[in-house]
Amino acid sequence: MNYTDRLENVSVLGAAGKMGSGILLLTAIEMADLSLKPDNKGKSFVINAIDVSSEALFGLMKYIRTQVFKAAEKKIIALRAVYHHRADLIENSEIINQYVDDVMLLIRPSIHIEVAYHSGLIFEAIKEDPALKVKLFSQINENSIKQPWFFTNTSSIPINELDKNAKLNGRVLGVHFYNPPAIQKLVEIIKAENTLPELSEFALLFSKNLRKTVVPSHDFAGFIGNGHFMRDALHGINEAEKLRASYSFAESVYLINKITQDYLIRPMGIFQLIDYVGIDVCQYIMSVMNPYLPNEDLHSNLLDKMIEIGVKGGQNADGSQKDGFLKYEKGKVVAIYDLDQKVYIQVDSFQQNCDRKLGEMPATVKPWKAVVGKQGMDEYFTSYFHEVKAMSTMGAGIASNYFLRSKEIAEKLVADKVAFTEEDVNTVLKTGFFHAYGPINNFMN
Predict the structure, then answer these.
(1) pTM above 0.85?
(2) So what's the pLDDT on residue 315?
């Protein structure tokens, strides 16, 4: 079965979720482009969008149509060539609408997993629940009329465990898209011990066709991305806990969030990133990883407490940020939750005093937007972080320690053979987390 044949019938589990919807969009477009090639005339392409909620699937179809329309607008020149034989399609708008229809005709929304029994390729993007993943994989595998391949979007569960427990005999591969899949360029690919080589070969070609950056990871819980992020987050949480001896909870969170964003020149502070991913999601990922880490305790009592009181962060259906450690209005942070008072405290009521405690910002600091993606920035970062290291202010001291801890975490991922190379770790952090620089560097040496 060649590349095109494997994509003739595909199913996406969890299709209406944030990850599943992006994977469905990308795959449906790739399948439509294949179906429109002359060599594939007469072939029937189907992609099943499977989810537990009919209402969510209705919303999914509206989302997909809108996104395909935008994609078609961007490649109108290529589409003119595709539809050159259609004398009835003259205006750009006619070609775009035809392409949207062609993509949408491939998609079959369903709340019944049985439709996946006819698929040769299964994309799985359900919640991070090993038992549920194994249950669904086993059900499809036992009833399938084919020998399906399973591409799981898990960001933390060892692929070997899924393979063994679902009895897939090597027909499973970790294909971890980053959030949101339609925009994020990074894909982590993780093979289990017995993963068949043809799955990896297909995934590499598929990712290339989607114009993704592929980084391989060894099959260890959390892989590279969460292997770094969870430990980095736990360090930030612990630093905030230390500050509570002298500051309120809200102030402590503010201080660490500002340091990790402004001093370390990251796109968002660590507590904002935890909110973005979801406090409950971070807690669950840590719980999945922890059993595989006999020499670590990857657990946070603070995350437990926030979840107990119902503060979870995460995303609304429209993509806007839910309140978590921080409270958001029109995408901006306006308040911080105080665990002692159980209310959000307006940032402007303590921001000035906290900034004064941190001390002057480094003179050469630049905002993340001014440096991210720029070439030849190593000289600047070396100069900047040497300046940070030489300062005696509270903010610079915490930032220096945080910087070095991030590097230590990254180097350990390589030493523990989670990452293949140092550059792989740096690529994941720069591409998947939009960091302006990789954590393994000599900027503070």
Answers:
(1) yes
(2) 86
